[in-house]
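Hi C.,

You asked whether I'd gotten around to modeling the 370-residue construct. I have! Everything is below, sequence then structure, no commentary in between.
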Amino acid sequence: MPKTQVQTVSRNIVLSGVMFVVFLVCSIAAQSVSPGATLSPLEVQARFGSLPEAPTAHVALTPGAMQRAQEQNGSIAANSGFTYLPYNYGPIMQTSRIYLIFWEPPQLQDGRASAVPNTFNNIMYQYVVDINGSKLLQTQTQYWMLTNSGYSYVQNTVSYGGYYLDATTPYPRNACWNPVTQYNCIRDDQIQAEIQKAIRINNWTGGYNNLFIVYTGPGEGSCSGWYTNGVCTPKNAAYLDYCGYHKYYNSAAGPVLYADITYPDSLTTNGNGCWSSLPAVPHGNIFIDAALSMTSHEHFEAITDPIPGYGWYDWVANAESADKCAWNFAPSPLIYGPLGNQYMNGHYYILQDEFSDAAFSVGLYPCVRR
């Protein structure tokens, strides 16, 4: 697009109780436009070509893996060396309807018992209810996509689509080998199959505003998509490299957007697991609270970059929005002390901060919580 078509767009945002006028530079036609409709699958295909059939998962690094990446090559711009989060002209989720899938058989592949706390599933549901209209989600309404009608912004709207509890289907045996969980491991294509089963049974559908979140039980590892001779390749093993990831697969109804949340567990690598950096435990169980923070991480990244790399994605830092502030909880000390840093719909949470292009563009600390 010609440089003469660059336009400066002014938007007012409330950040930590102070009003700032923020100017966002966008490569769009110099004309007044209003939010338009969500991109249809045909519009996306026309604009970007066919979406890849085997997209790469975007993972949420463990604290240890994030530190190792920064020490080795500085590829993850989290908590230091912040860079702007650019838009890559792809779709976003204007609103999100969340479907919860709990794959929780009573045993792992090696015969050991595996059970989540009795309150785990209900608390994950409560997050979906509480995040709707929240101040934390409001931080994402600065992000937009371009449609044939102009700008379409993220809305501060989340709805609950339903849940599916699968406590009878065993985890597949000899599916993969994870360095931490060994043969207690499932592949990404098997997670997709579980999602597709839940969709079929419940008559659900895919599409750009629907997100399916899969939770597995304690001790169950996974490979996020790449493995060699059944062994998870480097940077693709749950607990060792990541705590969750989001991705999509194609269907007749459009892409099926989904996230996989590894149960935080007590499994650690180099003393740094998916729960060890949590500064508060408002729900009285550090694994529940860690799973909640990881849920918000993947949820918010799916909102701004549902097709990884096509939406709001920093290719220089190899980071999506939540990556830039991963394991960052503000303020310090926490505003609610041991009860956390968020109060939503009558409930306390400890949820990671979210990156704000608006704050970054005016020289403020970009990890915000409201």
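If it helps when you're writing up: The longest helix spans residues 286-304.

Thanks,
B.
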